[in-house]
């Protein structure tokens, strides 16, 4: 008995002695848990997670209503899920945009599916970081800066009018969405890059774009393998174009005694800028080619959808249309017969730009985009572990009644006052903000100007459904009835 007594009293002492240590350990554990509190939300079934729900909602163009909104209602503006094997945190709202978009390269980097990277090329701006990224981003956006608008607008205006003459002349019915796709393709090549579009180029590019968000399976017959073949085809064309430009510029440099920087206009176009950077050894040929391919991807479906939705909203809101029409008629009658619009005139289209911005607020061409955490991130009391994905969203921001009262109604006058940063984000924000924003703006304004001053038009299907593949578009290509004024 004595032995037993001894043991139990010894145990008792031991426990007493160890208790604080135990408590301390427990507490520490708790602290770690608190410090590593994951955002709320369901991870779904193993690997797939909630991917099927996500796809189903996306296909119906109801990703926000059917996937994001119900989860926001349950968990708040930040929640976790799992998509295609990746734990993903979905965030909404201006604060989240500011945090994640401005911390690009520090806390997160942009993250694209393997098929996109393979088709755009790993040397495009998408995959670049830090200084390399800044250099390429700067080349693109400075080609489109305010000083360039002076020569860009007349050129853009000529292209728009040529396309209207060719495709609308003698017609009663036009597929507006298909028309704008062809137009924006020519605008990117001729206005921004300074490359003449060759036969069949658009079709090859469309085949590439069709594979960008499909599984990267190179089995013959899949969309992806067709896209890879198209990519090789376009690469051959572009290599030829880039090398020709290179020879041309080298010859020019020799002729001008080594100091030549090209003429004023050539100086602003992007291909000569890229090739000049190549000649200085600042860019490789692969980088030039990949960035041309990426640019088409970035500009094509986005601008076309923005234009389609602007016209749709104009058709639905005749009062706004009257105001907009007056803006363009006044501009036209103030210009004198046969005078084309220029960079200054773009600034006078302020009501039109409000209409376009409001249309893009309601129907942002880009739902949001993925980032990857490169460190453990602390945000709003939650931890987002290193390696997890983050999806920031335009819809989750644009439908916030705090910044856009009665958010589902169409009201261009919302933009009478400037919006605080990160509240309106159809073009993203931070270091990866859209490099083509100015081109998109000019493209939309110039097209609207020529259409409304030359044609009466109406939608054939006023409530045409919108589908997503993977960017949104009107299912019938948005046919409109037209008649010349
Ligand atoms: C209405 C039309 C457009 C919309 C809504 C749009 C939207 C966006 C958005 C949201 C991003 C950021 C993506 C991210 O953060 O991951 C972006 C990036 C980009 N956009 Fe646009 N875009 C449009 C038109 C254009 C055009 C016409 C060009 C062509 C020059 C262009 C070129 C780019 C490029 C190069 C980037 C990548 C910038 C970088 O990574 O630094 N975009 N765009
Ligand atoms: C695009 O437009 C150009 C010129 O306006 C035309 O020659 C070409 O056939 C069009 N391409 C398609 C696919 O519609």
UniProtKB/TrEMBL annotation:
GO cellular component: membrane
Needed cofactors: heme
Membrane topology note: Single-pass membrane protein
Domain of life where this protein originates: Eukaryota
Keywords noted in UniProt: Heme, Iron, Membrane, Metal-binding, Monooxygenase, Oxidoreductase, Transmembrane, Transmembrane helix
SUPFAM superfamilies: Cytochrome P450
Annotated binding of heme, by residue: 434
Compartments where located: Membrane
Transmembrane regions listed in the UniProt entry: 6-25
One Pfam short name: p450
InterPro entries noted in UniProt: Cyt_P450 (IPR001128), Cyt_P450_CS (IPR017972), Cyt_P450_E_grp-I (IPR002401), Cyt_P450_sf (IPR036396)
Molecular function via GO: heme binding; iron ion binding; monooxygenase activity; oxidoreductase activity, acting on paired donors, with incorporation or reduction of molecular oxygen
One GO-annotated biological process of the protein: sterol metabolic process
Principal subcellular localisation of the protein: membrane
Family stated for the protein in its record: Belongs to the cytochrome P450 family.
Protein name: Taxadiene 5-alpha hydroxylase
Source organism per UniProt: Rhodamnia argentea
Phylogenetic classification of the source organism: Eukaryota, Viridiplantae, Streptophyta, Embryophyta, Tracheophyta
């Amino acid at each position: 008995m004595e032995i037993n007594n001894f043991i139990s009293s010894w145990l008792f002492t031991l426990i007493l002695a160890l208790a604080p240590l135990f408590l301390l350990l427990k507490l520490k554990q708790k602290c770690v848990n608190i410090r590593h509190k994951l955002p709320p939300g369901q991870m779904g079934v193993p690997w797939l997670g909630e991917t099927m729900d996500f796809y189903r909602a996306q296909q119906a163009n109801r990703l926000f209503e059917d996937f994001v909104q119900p989860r926001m209602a349950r968990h708040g503006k930040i929640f976790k899920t799992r998509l295609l094997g990746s734990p993903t945190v979905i965030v909404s709202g201006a604060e989240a945009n500011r945090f994640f978009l401005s911390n690009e390269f520090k806390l997160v980097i942009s993250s694209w599916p393997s098929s996109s990277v393979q088709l755009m090329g790993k040397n495009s701006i998408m995959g670049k970081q830090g200084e390399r990224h800044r250099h390429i981003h700067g080349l693109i956006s400075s080609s489109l800066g305010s000083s360039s608008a002076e020569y860009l607008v007349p050129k853009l205006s000529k292209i728009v009018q040529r396309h209207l003459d060719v495709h609308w002349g003698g017609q009663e019915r036009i597929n507006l969405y298909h028309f704008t796709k062809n137009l924006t393709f020519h605008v990117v090549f001729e206005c921004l890059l300074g490359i003449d579009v060759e036969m069949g180029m658009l079709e090859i590019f469309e085949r590439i774009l069709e594979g960008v968000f499909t599984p990267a399976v190179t089995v013959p017959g899949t969309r992806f393998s067709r896209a890879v073949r198209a990519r090789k085809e376009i690469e051959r064309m572009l290599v030829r174009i880039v090398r020709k430009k290179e020879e041309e510029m080298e010859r020019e440099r020799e002729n001008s005694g080594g100091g030549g920087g090209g003429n004023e206009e050539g100086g602003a176009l992007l291909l000569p800028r890229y090739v000049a950077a190549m000649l200085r050894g600042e860019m490789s040929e692969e980088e030039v080619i990949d960035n041309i391919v990426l640019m088409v991807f970035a500009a094509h479906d986005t601008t076309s959808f923005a234009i389609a939705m602007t016209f749709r909203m104009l058709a639905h809101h005749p009062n706004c249309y009257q105001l907009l029409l007056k803006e363009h008629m006044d501009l036209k009658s103030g210009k004198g017969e046969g005078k084309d619009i220029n960079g200054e005139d773009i600034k006078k289209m302020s009501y039109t730009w409000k209409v376009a911005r409001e249309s893009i607020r309601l129907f942002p061409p880009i739902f949001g985009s993925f980032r990857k955490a490169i460190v453990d991130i602390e945000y709003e009391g939650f931890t987002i572990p290193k390696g997890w994905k983050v999806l920031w969203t335009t819809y989750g921001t644009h439908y916030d009644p705090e910044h856009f009262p009665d958010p589902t109604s169409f009201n261009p006058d919302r933009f009478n006052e400037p919006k605080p940063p990160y509240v309106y984000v159809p073009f993203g924000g931070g270091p990866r903000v859209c490099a083509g924003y100015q081109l998109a703006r000019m493209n939309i304004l110039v097209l609207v100007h020529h259409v409304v001053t030359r044609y009466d038009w109406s939608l054939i299907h006023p409530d045409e459904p919108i589908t997503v593949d993977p960017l949104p578009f009107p299912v019938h290509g948005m046919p409109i009835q037209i008649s010349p004024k």
